[in-house]
């Protein structure tokens, strides 16, 4: 149940690599060499844009921070690839003093990797962006391919990916694998997983690696093509939404407008009137759970960008998905989104603690997705308009000085109480919505409010539909932090106090994949943009 703002904040690096002259100028420098001419005070300046005199040229893109960023990026990539990878893939957390202690949402052995974010798929994307930023270092392409091949190993016959991959001749993390020993009889083994953005992120990684390698690697190209063909048949025809996953093509559904469940406004209570009445499992129904909306948009965006011969197909899928998101918006007085919908496009139960309700986290993600769709195609103003209506409502229900929003908000079609939902019965559905302390702890009942950032992007897009980027000032600050915190100029350490499903982990210093990915992508972005729109910030 993670939300790492990687897909909500639009991708800044495209297939365009940085200026080759700028890269080549740095190519013979080691990290130690480029630091000789810099001082700590230069790195720690206050981040304000330097003032240029009238007629003064922008400084050349070979001054200290960019050189340091290149050095750290190369060193960190090499260390992570050479020391941390197992079979080319990665866990979420790696014990810094015993790299054989590896954790995802479970402990992994040396033959097991995480696909789910922040795992091997995210590392692959980070290597791709580093390779595009620094074409003078061909090893970065090798690292990206190795990680992508690890993803390929975990691909399942239904087309996409599951949470893990296992490289043992007889895998203990079983799945109906496409390219290795398959077990297709275990529960769920045939199922391609969209939940937690698993397949979306893995396919983005595979497509971008295919493009990076010039579509010349048959294994990578074949994996991407196999997955895309099956993704195309997993979008509900006519309806436009996607299920939580699939084992084969999905059937058409009617394009209905979302509505309130029949129990709303009655006296019998949500749980008594509206539970266990479904003809399908929740994972086969349209879902927005765990921020899937922006993940689907980005997956289809990259498919359209990377494979222009099929742009019409992926463009039509994007359009259909935007239509679904707008139809999934609940009517007044709560024009936001639920986590899960049934065949009637009414909010439905999923797991016993996931109620038919307005979903604060998922509603925020849908708004990011709709704004991204509008940014990509301003000829559909309805996508932005839907966000305006949702903001007007949700800005009245976030709390703690507008910093938090409930994961679930009680449905009410007459006078919403806007009560955050917590209480869960151990063996069944909750009796009522309540502000009582949660009884199920391993879940994000309250999430950070992103409404101010969404409002800012909504306002910006009224006059500027270019892609959203970090400001040069923020990018420089983030880059300086990544540069300054790299241990031995090659790795980032996170102190880890394990808990929950990882309570058996050894406390101490870990190499955290999420931190590696965040810093690598920041460094790559800085290297690129200090040759384009952020030249003056390279000091």
TrEMBL record:
Pfam families: Pec_lyase
Comp. bias regions, Basic and acidic residues: 33-45
GO MF term list: lyase activity
Keywords tagged on the record: Lyase
Keyword hit for Kinase: no
PROSITE patterns hit by this protein: PROKAR_LIPOPROTEIN (PS51257)
Region (Disordered): 20-45
Protein name per UniProt: Pectic acid lyase
């Amino acid at each position: 149940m993670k939300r790492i703002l990687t897909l909500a904040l639009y991708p800044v690096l495209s297939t365009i690599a940085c200026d080759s002259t700028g890269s080549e100028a740095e190519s013979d420098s080691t990290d130690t060499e480029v630091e000789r001419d810099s001082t700590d005070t230069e790195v720690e300046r206050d981040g304000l844009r330097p003032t240029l005199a009238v007629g003064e040229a922008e400084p050349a893109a070979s001054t200290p921070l960019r050189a340091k960023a290149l050095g750290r990026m190369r060193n960190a990539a090499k260390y992570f690839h050479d020391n941390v990878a197992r079979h080319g893939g990665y866990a979420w957390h790696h014990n810094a003093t015993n790299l054989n202690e590896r954790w995802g949402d479970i402990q992994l052995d040396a033959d097991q990797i995480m696909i789910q974010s922040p795992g091997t798929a995210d590392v692959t994307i980070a290597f791709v962006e580093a390779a595009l930023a620094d074409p003078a270092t061909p090893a970065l392409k090798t690292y990206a391919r190795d990680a992508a091949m690890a993803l390929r190993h975990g691909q399942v016959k239904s087309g996409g990916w599951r949470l893990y991959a296992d490289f043992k001749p007889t895998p203990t993390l079983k799945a109906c694998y496409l390219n290795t020993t398959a077990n297709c009889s275990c529960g769920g083994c045939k199922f391609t997983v969209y939940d937690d953005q698993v397949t979306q992120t893995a396919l983005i990684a595979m497509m971008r690696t295919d493009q990076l390698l010039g579509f010349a690697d048959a294994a990578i190209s074949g994996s991407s093509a196999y997955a895309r063909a099956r993704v195309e048949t997993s979008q509900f025809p006519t309806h436009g939404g996607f299920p939580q996953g699939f084992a084969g093509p999905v059937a058409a559904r009617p394009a209905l407008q979302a509505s309130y469940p029949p129990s709303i406004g009655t006296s019998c209570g949500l749980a008594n009137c509206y539970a266990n009445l479904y003809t399908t499992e929740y994972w086969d129904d349209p879902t927005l759970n765990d921020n899937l909306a922006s993940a689907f948009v980005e997956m289809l965006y990259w498919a359209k960008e990377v494979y222009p011969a099929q742009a019409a197909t992926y463009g039509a899928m994007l359009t259909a998905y935007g239509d679904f998101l707008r139809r999934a918006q609940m009517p007044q007085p709560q024009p936001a989104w639920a986590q899960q919908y049934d065949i009637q496009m009414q909010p439905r139960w999923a797991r016993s603690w996931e109620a038919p309700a307005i979903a604060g986290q998922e509603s925020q993600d849908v708004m990011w997705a709709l704004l991204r769709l509008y940014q990509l195609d301003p000829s559909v103003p309805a996508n932005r308009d839907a966000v305006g209506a949702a903001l007007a409502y949700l800005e009245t229900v976030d709390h703690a000085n507008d910093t938090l929003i409930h994961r679930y908000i009680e449905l009410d079609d007459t006078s919403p109480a806007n009560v955050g939902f917590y209480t869960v019965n151990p063996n069944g559905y909750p009796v009522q919505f309540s502000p009582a302390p949660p009884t199920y702890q391993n879940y994000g009942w309250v999430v950070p409010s992103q409404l101010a950032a969404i409002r800012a992007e909504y306002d910006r897009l009224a006059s500027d539909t270019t892609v959203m980027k970090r400001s040069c000032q923020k990018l420089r600050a983030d880059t300086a932090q990544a540069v300054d915190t790299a241990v031995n100029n090659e790795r980032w350490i996170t102190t880890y106090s394990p808990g929950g499903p990882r309570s058996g982990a050894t406390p101490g210093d870990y190499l955290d994949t999420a931190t590696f990915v965040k810093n690598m992508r920041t460094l790559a972005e800085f290297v690129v943009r200090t040759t384009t729109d952020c030249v003056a910030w390279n000091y």
